[in-house]
């Protein structure tokens, strides 16, 4: 098994787990290892990952570190937000949406360096193994995939540390003890799960939260902001044009300061078990409300309701790892078509964990004040027309009622 792999591209963070995986690949497969580290806005310095890889014997030309923040937001986060995607009605899919981008970059590097395999550090119980591997196979059908957590016998923290010490892998002092919970982070969100969070009956400790202050600690005065949209994507804050990643960073700062974006969720994993996670998506929570606000005046009722109908399916595809599937791309085409006139500005009130839309305007607004006013308007709307409309819609209800009356005698 091990002899058929000559070169592997590893998704590498520079942390203990992926450093152990790197060495394990070298010792178990006897292959050349290429590392890929993505800057997704996780808030960590990435140069230590380069130094760690070099320390473990990786050639400089085989170490790839790339800032993908702009691509992440413009090509993955924003298309998802055009759909107002929420998994199980609540989760903004912060971890899920990052996996296809990492996978794509790994495959691109594999082609560039002539690697015949890719590897990830996802465990055998989670969703990420599915997301990575479905993406790999969609992009490179014959690629060899190595998932160490499904193969090795390093099944405990103690054995992992022993392996690290045996192979002289540096271990930070804070990594020697059992971590109180695990964290995944990127520009869209942070996700915390495991250990102290495993009992869903217990409230998450305050120290779990890293991206937001508590709503109770937020200012007593509301913050007002305006977000500008063009064809469904946010392009400005308070009139200032910003790049996608810069805009999301700014919204994260505003959300954090106002205690916005916390979610404590028990979700249904794709692999079949329930999992409790604590998510923080401050900027995304603001963005979702703003986007729905601008859609409320620019989307026709039929289009808006159709979007809401397909949203759970679209969100499920992302959560399950089918970003590169034809059905996700088909739904994306429909969603993107709906955004043709989703342009304008939304004013929001941020206050102690809450986001309220307090104003919206668009050059393509379908809102007609003359139609809805209680005063006499200039638009021709004959109130008497409603009688026929109601009778036609009541016809089947009246037919059913008459039949039921006959049956009951």
TrEMBL record:
It is found in: Cytoplasm. The keyword Transmembrane helix does not apply. L-citrulline binds at residues 91, 96, 127, 131, 182, 191, 267, 279. GO terms for molecular function: argininosuccinate synthase activity. InterPro entries: Arginosuc_syn_C, Arginosuc_syn_N, Arginosuc_synth, Arginosuc_synth_CS, Arginosuc_synth_type_1_subfam, AS_cat/multimer_dom_body, Rossmann-like_a/b/a_fold. Keywords: Amino-acid biosynthesis, Arginine biosynthesis, ATP-binding, Cytoplasm, Ligase, Nucleotide-binding. Residues 181-398 form the Arginosuccinate synthase C-terminal domain. NCBIfam families: argG, PRK00509.1. Homotetramer. This is Argininosuccinate synthase. It comes from Ancylobacter polymorphus. The gene is argG.
């Amino acid at each position: 098994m091990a002899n058929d792999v000559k070169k592997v591209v590893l998704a590498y963070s520079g942390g203990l787990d992926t450093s152990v995986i790197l060495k394990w690949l070298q010792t178990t497969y006897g292959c050349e290892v290429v590392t890929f580290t993505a800057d997704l806005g996780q808030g960590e310095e990435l140069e230590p990952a380069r130094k760690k890889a070099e320390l473990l014997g990786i050639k400089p030309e085989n170490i790839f570190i790339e800032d993908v923040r702009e691509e992440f937001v413009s090509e993955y986060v924003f298309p998802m937000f055009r759909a107002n995607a929420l998994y199980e009605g609540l989760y903004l899919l912060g971890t899920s949406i990052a996996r296809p981008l990492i996978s794509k970059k790994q495959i691109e590097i594999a082609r560039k360096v002539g690697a015949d395999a890719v590897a990830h550090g996802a465990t055998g119980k989670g969703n990420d193994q599915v997301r990575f591997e479905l993406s790999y196979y969609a992009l490179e059908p014959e690629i060899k995939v190595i998932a160490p957590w499904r193969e090795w016998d390093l099944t405990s923290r103690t054995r992992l540390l022993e392996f690290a010490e045996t192979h002289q892998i540096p271990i930070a002092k804070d990594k020697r003890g059992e971590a109180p919970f695990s964290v995944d982070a990127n520009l869209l969100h942070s996700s915390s799960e495991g250990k102290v969070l495993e009992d869903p009956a217990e409230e998450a400790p305050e120290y779990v939260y890293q991206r937001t202050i508590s709503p109770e600690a937020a200012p007593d005065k509301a913050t007002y902001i305006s977000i500008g949209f063009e064809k469904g994507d946010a392009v400005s804050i308070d009139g200032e044009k910003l790049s996608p990643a810069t805009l999301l960073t700014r919204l994260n700062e505003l959300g954090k300061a106002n205690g916005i974006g916390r979610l404590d969720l028990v979700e249904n994993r794709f692999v079949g078990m329930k999992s409790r996670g604590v998510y923080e998506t401050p900027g995304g929570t603001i963005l979702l409300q703003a986007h729905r606000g601008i859609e409320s005046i620019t989307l026709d009722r039929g289009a808006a309701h159709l979007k809401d109908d397909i949203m759970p399916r679209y969100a499920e595809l992302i959560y399950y790892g089918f970003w590169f599937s034809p059905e996700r791309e088909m739904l994306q085409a429909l969603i993107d078509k709906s955004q043709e006139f989703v342009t304008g500005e939304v004013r929001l009130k941020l206050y102690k964990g809450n986001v309220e839309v307090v104003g919206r305007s668009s050059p393509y607004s379908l809102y007609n004040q003359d139609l809805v006013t209680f005063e006499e308007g200039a638009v021709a709307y004959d109130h008497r027309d409603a009688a026929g409309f109601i009778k036609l819609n009541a016809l089947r209800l009246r037919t059913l009622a008459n039949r039921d009356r006959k049956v009951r005698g």
